[in-house]
Design a protein that fits this description.
CATH class: Alpha Beta
CATH topology: Nuclear Transport Factor 2, Chain: A
Number of domains: 1
Number of strands: 6
Number of helices: 3
Shape: globular
CATH architecture: Roll
Order of helices and strands: HHEEHEEEE
Distance between the termini: 36 Å
Radius of gyration: 16 Å
Helix content: 10-25%
Largest sheet: 6 strands, mixed
Length: 126
Amino acid sequence: MHDQDVRAALLRHWNASDANDFGAEHEIYGEHAVLEYPQSGERMRGAHDIQASRMAQPSRKRFTVRRVLGGGGLWVSELIVTYDEQPVYMVSVMEFEDGKVVRETQYFGDPFDSGPSRAQWVERMG
């Protein structure tokens, strides 16, 4: 699989995630994929369990892709996930083999107020 094909698959994945299209969202995963959430200490094994866990998520969520970077078998997506109107910054690290995700790790970070000590060097983002 070429890099442009992987990038296109990732964008389809995140667009399907945003649309709550669980079937299309999970086409990217290999049968034995592993998904980890280090901050909560959770690991899911297998595409079926990954999909089932997401379908059980009660929050209304939206995905905004900030950027997708990578090459070969390693890709990083930077996103803003909005759960019930609350934005959360997320980084997804995906490892690919034979065109499918075999391992994904997602890191989440809540927004925080800016520090006054660096105000003179800061440009405020939208």
